[in-house]
Amino acid sequence: MHTSRTNTALCPTLLWVFNCPALLMVLTQRGFFASANANDTSSMNFYEADNFIQAAEVKRDGPRLNISFAEAIKGPLLSSDSQVQLSTLDLLFHYMSCDGASGKQIQVLVEENVADYVFEVLRLSECKDPVVSSCIRVLDLLSTAEQAFKQRLAIGFGTLISVVRYVSEVPFHPAQSQTLKLIWNYISDCPGMLSTSQIEELVLILTRMLKMHTVAEVGMLPEAFITVCSVFVALLKYSSSHGTLNLVTSVQEASKHAILACLDLSEKHPGQILHSLYLLKETYLYGNGENFNESGNIELRSYVVEVCIKQLLPWIVTTINELEEEIVLGVLETFHSLLLQDCDIQAMRLAKTLVSSSWFCFSFGCLGLYPTEKMKCRVYLMLSSLVDVLLGNGSGKPIRDSALYLPADPVDLLFLLGQKSSHNLELSSCQSAILLVLYTSSLYDERLADEKLVLASLDQYLLVNSRDLQYGAADSLAVMRLVNLYALFRGLAKMNYQIPYSSKAESILFQLMTENEWDLPSSGIHSVSLKWLFQQEKISKLLSYQILRFSRSTSSNGTDIIVQGRNDRILSKEAIAKLVAAGDNYGATIFVCLLTDLAKDNGQEHDIISVVTLMETIITIFPAASNQLCLCGIGKAIYTLCYDTSHTFSPQIVKAISVLSFKILRLVEPEILSSDENWLAVTMKLMENLDTSEAADRWNQGSLVVIGVLSLVLHHSTNEVLLEASKAILFNTSLVSAINSIIDAAHLKGPALVDHDEGTGIGESLIYVLLLNYFSLRSLPAVLPEFVDWKNFFDLPNRMQPLSFIGIHCHDLCRLMHFGSSLVKLVASYSLLQLLTRLSDQRDKNHFELKCTVGYLMSVIGVLEGLIFYSDLRVAMNCGLCLSIILGWEMLDMQKTTLIEKNSWCRLIVEELAMSLAAPCLATKSFINHHKPAIHVAVALLRLQKVPGWMRSVFNDTCISCIIENLSATNVNTEMVFLFRELLNSEYLKTAHIANLNQMLQACRQYLYADITQDDQSDEHVKKTGTTSNDVEEVCEFLIYLMSSESSPDMDSRGSHIAIGNKQLLEEIELFCRTLTVEDDS
To answer: Which residue positions does the secretion signal occupy (predicted)?
Structure first.
């Protein structure tokens, strides 16, 4: 009845009793303090006070008890006896947690600095249990007095960081969750109070906790995991953490490990995966701000997207049937938040990965599994953002606007699409969204419904809404998407003849394309759609205009059109090139007709050049396109541009036509050109515009490309095509005169000619003239068989008659080889080899002798001998072959002269060859290849009727034995076997030599049979496309390749070709064996 008075009387006594925590614990457990406090707070309700003074006493006695309690426990808390500390902490815990304990009671304890004492105990405990656990659970209760506890928490926060470091190392530590909760409270309630060092330390501790939890080193309770994620998010948002670069790695790891830790636990603890997704999303946003330098931001965003692509996406796709809707929504929201950063390259990366994983089908699968409005809204909003990223900003707006009205079933979408939408804005908006969904999904090879149903729905849409479409109800972009979508499913229907379609709907679509402004390159297009469109002859004119627009854009940009930030699934040069090369559509015809129309209808010069340039690119990408263009009459189109046009034949057009003609002629099959007579007129026009009056060092690039075209025309004549055009080139007097002028100008340079390489005006012109001369030498026997008297090229300078056709005399070629640059030497040596080969063949056939002096012949031989060991093996080989041909004529030993016998250079060449091949440890394959030219000279000397006497001293028994010892199955080549065959014929080989050689060749044969698929020289360059940005460099490079491949450098001394590669080596070994058999028989 008089509890309040009793309490007042007990207070002095309790000051002494409170020093006994055990007694107080008993009192607490029996509810003494709880009932006292309850009476304190409720006495006014149960009893009527006699007066106001009595009521005030009752209200004053309760707090005095709490204050006395707080004062009483401070001493034991700081006791040196740990057991006393623990007992006091337990007392304090039970005091605050007993039934009837009020928030006011806890607030009094905080105000009386009890929390400070507990933090001090915690600090002095050095993070040792059980003190840590007791302190943390007490602080957790004290934290319920939020406002009063804030200041104390700020003072003791540093101690909490040490504690959380400790509890993070102990699996399932009971204080983990409460410690993290205290840290979370401080970060939430006291923004701006954390120091950078504290943030860094916390981030490192939390990251380690997540990592150890992922690898199962240290377990973590679900509530602790959720708190860790919450604390991490708060730290990311914390202003002082911005710009701390050394957090990037930790933030990356934490977000990844948080996700990994939840993927297998999502069914049991869905809250964990949701919080880890929240952390991942905030990490991406953190990397999207101005927290680090640009590279740091990019690295962080890239890492988050990598987690989404490599971890989240495969997981959600494979476990979708087992997940709760809340989790699926969380994943979709995370992906959606990343896609909303549509200006970010990482958003595009995620978008492309999603569509490559059939995201549209997956999304509608979610709608089937979770048929709720929340899921439908999330799916369509995310799809709209996905379309925004893939097709450009704002592209997904129709889906966003209609998200609430769109059905969840794709079949219902198709039904809605087939309805008449006149005067129904809501239905019209839905149809626009449906077309956009179908268009984007099909663009990435996703099929939301059966192809037959989709095509039928599109037909129905065109039929019932034709009037609205034709009167401008749809914008041009929507029309283009409709065209692309319809073309795709018509193309698929063509592959499957069982799918019906409406011809009337097709006519409506074509009419719509005719009457509306549309731009084919303005939106993404599927390859099947593009092919079907180019197979429709009815819209060839429309497509021709689209190609013109495309060529204008690419010529101005220099690259493919980028559709609203995208660079894939667009109308690209590669896509068009593939169409033209395929030949199963009107692509090539459209280009030819377009160029013809531009020529006849007075098209702009810029348009003509842009279309021609696009055709050049197409041929470069797909060489087979040259065949299709020729079959469709590109020669006639170029002829029209040359003659049937009001255009002036400007230098720009000349160069454009020249480059196009060169690329066509370099790649087209000869049989396709056999019936095309337009190339004669084109060739004549190009030669008319070749400025031959200019000085040699002032030929422009256009003229040089024309020379390249003429060279290819001559090249094709060897296949018995373009014969008339070749004649026109060979006998063009202006061209012949210009070539002679350039040769004369080069000779005037003398030794200084070596400084005039392809980088100078005269050097570049000289190389092209020499190339034209080479192809002329090859063309002459095909165009005018038996017409040329090849010995005229070998006349002495004082008796030389000017040639009536393109040609350079022997002594001029020798001077160029002697004084010219490396590239001049190369081309001139090929020309000289071609000339000597033709002359030798004619000499053998007609049995005539050359009328030249020994001095003239020796001057030619001197030039050749000086280049036998030239650094460019091709030049050296050509010179070796030329020298072997001349030696084979045996003119120097006529009339009892012994010039070959006394020729020190020939002997030096052979001795160098023998010494090098005989030297131990030097006979590698590359080393032997370097001596191929000298081998041909040695063979030529061995075949002479009067073999020089010193040959036996050079190729003595010891030398031959050493050479054979150095040979192996892997380093022998065709020339070496060729040399030994001649040594065998000349009886230089002994029985031991033959036995060892035969053994080595048999081993070589076995090695070659095991590796017969390999070839020493590949044919990769035959259809090589140009890779240089300079047309002149590309022309020169290809002509040199063509010259090198036609004039095989492996020829014997009589001019007969010795093929290269493993099969050819086998053939040479077989010849050696046959020779050996004949020798044995004799």
So the answer is: 1-38
